[in-house]
Design goal:
The chain has 17 helices and nine strands. By secondary structure, the protein is an alpha/beta fold. Strand 6, helix 13 and strand 7 (about 245-250) form a beta-alpha-beta unit. Helix 4 packs parallel to helix 7, helix 8 crosses helix 10 (about 160-180) and helix 9 packs across helix 10 (about 160-180).
């Protein structure tokens, strides 16, 4: 399925549909823990099938488990029964360790498990596109080098950071191609850590590597959707739009109406109902208000698709999820 055509169709329609980053709450429907879900290709496929069947989402999105790629490099993962996996510790701290870091095969860690989940889901989901989740290069490097330490290294040892970024990009192209070969119609590339960089730093340490991945993977049959939920997005908007992604997904840290007012008509923008504050922590009434407010301010733009601001937490309330879709449909 051509997800770009579908996104533009809904963006230009008088009555829009939504594409939230919705996957982990399916664990509730399946009656399994988050830890069990992230370790099973079969359950991940069923999670995508559940979301596709039980909501009016435009596409089924695979788990946005941003520990998968770092684990493949050898990073330590902390699993939790009800929370998404997290990377602990620091794998690369200096130039020697950066040079010694190997670009892993896809057989390392859980990468092929996630690929197989997409392959299985693609066979059973026949009426909607399937979008694979993948981390962005700077966000991956941050997990390998520690999200705080990488900021210091960008200033003190930029060449070290670039060594890791090059290897991260090479792996992500390989991983993205595997998702493409498995039948995914596109990738949602999450680059949240770049959202806290200054525009100049993002221009050096994130944008070139993101573009390299997009150029390698995106074609007429496969789309890359770029996600950045940082509050510095407005300051780097021109550089973001120069990436050439099929669509741009922004978080609730930014004013979506203000973003759209600065967005060229040929750039597709998605977002941004608060995933933690509304989907997880809100009520049916509050998320309905928030969604309607978003639609009143942004629904008239013919290059806008409503979504969550980021990945919806596993413990989000299903009544809130359904209220979000209902509010879009009104």
């Amino acid at each position: 399925m051509d997800i770009r055509e579908l996104l533009w169709e809904t963006a230009r329609a008088e009555k829009k549909r939504a594409l939230p980053i919705l996957s982990f709450p399916a664990a509730q429907k399946l009656g399994v823990s988050v830890e069990t879900l992230v370790k099973s290709a079969e359950l991940q496929a069923r999670a995508m099938e559940t979301i596709a069947r039980e909501t009016d989402t435009l596409a089924a999105v695979s788990l946005m488990d941003l520990s998968v790629e770092a684990q493949a490099f050898g990073a330590q993962v902390r699993f939790s029964e009800n929370e998404v996996p997290a990377i602990v510790g620091q794998l690369v701290s200096d130039e020697d360790e950066a040079n010694a870091l190997e670009v892993p095969d896809l057989t390392a860690g859980r990468a092929m498990l996630c690929v197989e989940a997409v392959r299985t889901a693609r066979k059973s989901i026949t009426d909607k596109p399937v979008v694979a989740g993948m981390i962005g290069p700077y966000s991956l490097a941050g997990r390998l080098m520690d999200v705080t330490e990488i900021m210091y290294l960008c200033f003190d040892e930029p060449e070290t950071v670039h060594i890791v970024l090059d290897k991260a990009a090479r792996y992500l192209i390989r991983y993205g191609q595997a998702m493409k070969d498995a039948g995914a119609d596109g990738i949602m590339m999450a680059e949240p850590l770049a959202g806290i960089l200054s525009p100049d730093m993002a221009g050096e340490f994130s944008m070139p590597y993101v573009k390299r991945i997009i150029d390698a993977l995106q074609d007429d049959d496969f789309a890359v959707l770029y996600h950045n939920c940082g509050n510095s997005v407005p300051q780097m908007l021109d550089d973001i739009y120069a990436l050439g992604a099929a669509a741009y997904h922004f978080g609730n840290a930014v004013d979506m109406a203000a973003i759209l007012a600065r967005t060229p008509d040929d750039k597709l923008v998605m977002g941004n109902v608060d995933p933690a504050g509304e989907f997880a922590g809100g009520t049916v009434e509050s998320i309905t208000r928030a969604t309607r407010d978003l639609m009143e301010k942004c629904g008239g733009y013919r290059n806008f698709v409503p979504s969550s601001g980021c990945d919806i937490p596993a413990h989000a309330k299903w009544e809130n999820i359904q209220a979000f879709f209902a509010a879009i449909d009104q």
